[in-house]
Design a protein that fits this description.
This protein is mainly alpha-helical and 177 residues long. It is 28% helix and 7% strand.
Length: 177
């Protein structure tokens, strides 16, 4: 299980992270603001109203939510972006709702998973952006375990259990009838 960080783990790293964010004008959204965009402060909403959804700008971190207004530029927030498939199309009486990731920054909801792992490490001092690089695979399998040192610095990577892979019995593929 991923440990919950509740205190500053490295004051010097945290200080350098704050300095880096200030020099690059990076404001980190809280998880509460991401969950409920109505909590986003007005000065940030004003900046977002002039910014393209897919612009490479740290302000777009505030748009890591399912509730982005479906506009390419200047959009703020609204209800969730989804499509409900009608029973006439699906043939089942159950409601089938599909969330739409197009209106995320970069068009992918995986940005939120990466931010959700990295943000606590930044604010606690567990990650120093002046000496470390953060890298995640695009599969969405994230694990903030203690990463190894490399020539590039410390890299955040998921860990996998070899025994889980080696003991699995492959299922043979059978041709369709």
């Amino acid at each position: 299980m991923i440990p919950i960080v509740t205190e500053v783990t490295n004051k010097e790293s945290r200080k350098r992270a704050i300095e880096r964010c200030r020099e690059r004008k990076i404001v980190l959204p809280t998880f509460a603001e991401m969950r409920d965009p109505s909590l986003v402060p007005e000065p940030i909403k004003r900046r977002l109203s002039k910014l393209g959804l897919w612009d490479l700008d740290p302000m777009n971190l505030f748009r890591i939510t399912w509730k982005n207004e479906p506009k390419e530029t200047g959009g703020l927030f609204g209800g969730p972006n989804f499509v409900e498939l009608p029973s006439e199309l699906t043939g089942v009486p159950a409601r089938i709702v599909m969330l739409i990731g197009k209106w995320f920054p970069t068009g992918a909801h995986k940005v939120g998973a990466a931010y959700g792992c990295l943000a606590p490490s930044i604010v606690s001092g567990g990650f120093d952006p002046t000496t470390q690089k953060a890298a995640w695979p695009s599969t969405g399998n994230y694990s903030p375990t203690r990463p190894p040192r490399t020539p590039m610095g410390r890299i955040r990577m998921p860990t996998f259990s070899r025994s889980a892979w080696s003991t699995a019995t492959p299922t043979p593929l059978r041709p369709r009838p």
